[in-house]
């Protein structure tokens, strides 16, 4: 309507000044008059972008035509995680580490090995859950999961400068607020749907907390020096080690949960 009024105003003005302009200027007015509706009718780039920006929901069918309640499924997976502390641990394939520490004119050689994920606590769903179509027509459920605390353990051996064994025991490292991206693939087999863990990728390293060293022979000053020397080793790739161990927990939980119960048929 604004465009129509503007065109009407231009036409009226043109008639009023018709007698005051020469024929050449009259042609210019006519060109502007004809172009005005086209300019006013053109949609803005902002409106085009907004119109093409759509948001999918986890209970809408994906491109494969399958409707999955992804949010409820992920919540059930989290509830099925067996997080009993200390009953079992998972090998995280961390490399061995050797270092030397000097204290009170004595040299101590420390070897750290056998890294394991002892426990995880406080797993929660972070943000939205998406259900998308995979390249082969399967459905993939995508979600981010946070771990409030993970505990990694290592075996350590301390020798003196002469090679004599001084002490051996266990290191314990606490990591807080870790986040992983989890993808679960859903496939159809003989009219029934099955789910399997596709991948777990670390998103954040988390926060490195306390490091404890079970010692009886070494004094506190030496232990403090050793823990300080191990900081870079205990923080490097720790997010990958936790994700690696977390896969084992998720494999078990997915095996206990029937994804077929969360598919609308």
Automatic annotation (TrEMBL):
Signal peptide residues on this chain, from the entry's feature table: 1-41
The keyword Signal appears for this protein: yes
Record's compositionally biased regions (Polar residues): 45-54
Source taxon at top rank: Eukaryota
Region feature (Disordered): 45-64
Record keywords: Signal
Protein name in the entry: Uncharacterized protein
